Amino acid sequence: MLTPDLLERAVEILRQGGVVALPTETVYGLAANAEDELAVRRVFAIKGRPATHPLIVHIPGVEALPDWARDIPEEARRLAAAFWPGPLTLVLPRTARATDAVTGGQDTVALRVPAHPIAHAVLSALGGGLAAPSANRFGRVSPTTAPHVREDLGAEVDLVLDGGPCTVGVESTIVDLSSGEPAILRPGGLASEEVERVLGRPVPIRTASTVRVSGSLASHYAPRAGVVLVEPAEALAKAEGLRAQGLRVGVLGPSSLVLPPDFPRFEVPEDPAGAARYLYMRLREADQAGLEMLVACLPPARGLGLAVRDRLSRAAAPRPPGA
Ligand code: TXA
Ligand code: MG
């Protein structure tokens, strides 16, 4: 619950260059005043994120769009009208208000109007923009509850606002509209079919783009356990095979999956949106259970299933040494 006192404290901290973790409908964000370069640098330092990976600027409403972006195409306005506030981020040419610290020196800026009432209350009271990446250490699973944030970043954050579990559960869908042809840079909490419906044309997904999108690094969103991807029908055989090699194995999959009772199971709903909502929570639980291998069932490749498949593929990707 956000009391007026707590809201005032959060805004005061942000005005003085502090860092506040707050809920959005997608995942928890680690927020700093986007126009305060020192505060933004602290966000990078806390996350352990390379300074060249740009942050999303969260704004209170679509009316603030021209403060941060210029040459706004009609298609951006259409998407904003249809999906803001919500899990959609638009990449557009930036104005001077979006500094190099936030954009990593690129001439574009990523903008989003979050739907969570706490994020919205803080943004409205602050009256500016909040640079906020997901409130986890770089390359780890994003937090979807306030206790997750405290586990990861606890003492280093000036304040953690608790808004309960995030309802979407995966990060926003990023649509690049900075160069004529729209493209999805990160599938996320808004289905790509919805973007295509509003734009009335196919929109390619371009995750391995040349722009610096941290989510496009091969291994990202990774739990500590190794992850292998399977279609649900192959899950049992795969899990038994790995267990026969002496590994501590669990299975992440829908409730319909039939498994022997002695297999640790991390259940997600059958529908893609439900799978997205619980994905990061279950990956954390799998780590707490001390698994060495997680056999993860891929959801159908439609709707939010694309975002879940994307995050699971990154979790299963080869990891750099020591990661
Ligand atoms: O749902 C979300 O988007 C969450 C919540 C907190 O709003 N935020 C989030 O932030 O996922 P972060 O920093 O973990 O991911 C931001 C993504 C990165 O992949 C970054 O590279 C990309 O946005 N990005 C930021 N500015 C960009 C730009 N100008 N061009 C292309 N990609 C950009
Ligand atoms: Mg992130």
Automatic annotation (TrEMBL):
Its EC number is 2.7.7.87. It is found in: Cytoplasm. The keyword Transcription does not apply. GO terms for molecular function: L-threonylcarbamoyladenylate synthase. Residues 4-190 form the YrdC-like domain. Keywords: ATP-binding, Cytoplasm, Nucleotide-binding, Nucleotidyltransferase, Transferase, tRNA processing. It holds the Pfam family Sua5_yciO_yrdC. InterPro entries: DHBP_synth_RibB-like_a/b_dom, Sua5-like_dom, Sua5/YwlC_C, Sua5_C, T(6)A37_SUA5, TC-AMP_synthase_SUA5. It catalyses: L-threonine + hydrogencarbonate + ATP = L-threonylcarbamoyladenylate + diphosphate + H2O. PROSITE patterns: YRDC. PANTHER family: SUA5 (PTHR17490), THREONYLCARBAMOYL-AMP SYNTHASE (PTHR17490:SF16). Required for the formation of a threonylcarbamoyl group on adenosine at position 37 (t(6)A37) in tRNAs that read codons beginning with adenine. Belongs to the SUA5 family. This is Threonylcarbamoyl-AMP synthase.
